[in-house]
């Protein structure tokens, strides 16, 4: 927002975050121990939505989603809170239509995810079914700050661009302005989570200032182009 973020991703704490590395696993556990829940997160979104003028994207595994009752109940709850898009990493394309339909009815984007291990024909199918943007996982493995990024992510983004007009946004492992500069030379934006949480954990008393400063650093690396960052 004021620091330059074009969208915000809110992760729902879960006991088995299978796509997340050490940093986000630890953050999930701390949040759960302090009583966080899906409904509590939505209450936070509702309370701040009127002060946030960028899209809000919810990231949740499918199990917490089901605890709200069903796809319709989930879509109704997140729509009422003011969520614009949803990422569900462990929901296969073949099983996604009920949730996709429920979200579509409420004008909520169900964002597709593709990875370096996704076959080309499946990348194309996921990209065509997605809405909002396509999340391109930059590496094989879990989330977490990295010193170097995979050299194959450019090919993945190119394949997405050939399959859809939606933005191709790259995440997993991005942790420095240099990474952002490199990735936004071919992608439409970046997602940074673990590196941001690492910085906040080092200075919890200054977490707001630390987060804002880091987002400004990242945004400055792609300021000259129309790409997105979060």
3D architecture notes:
With 230 residues, this protein is of the alpha/beta class. It has one domain: Aldolase class I (TIM Barrel, Alpha-Beta Barrel), CATH 3.20.20. It is 43% helix and 13% strand. It contains 10 helices and 8 strands. It has helices at residues 22-33, 38-48, 62-66, 71-81, 97-105, 120-129, 153-163, 177-183, 194-202, 207-220, and strands spanning 8-11, 56-59, 85-87, 109-114, 134-137, 168-171, 189-190, 228-229. The chain has an 8-stranded parallel β-sheet with strand order 1-2-3-4-5-6-7-8. Strand 3, helix 5 (97-105) and strand 4 (109-114) form a beta-alpha-beta unit. Helix 4 packs parallel to helix 5 and helix 8 (177-183) runs parallel beside helix 10. The longest helix has 14 residues, at 207-220. The termini are close together. 39% of the residues are buried. The model has no long low-confidence stretch (mean pLDDT 86).
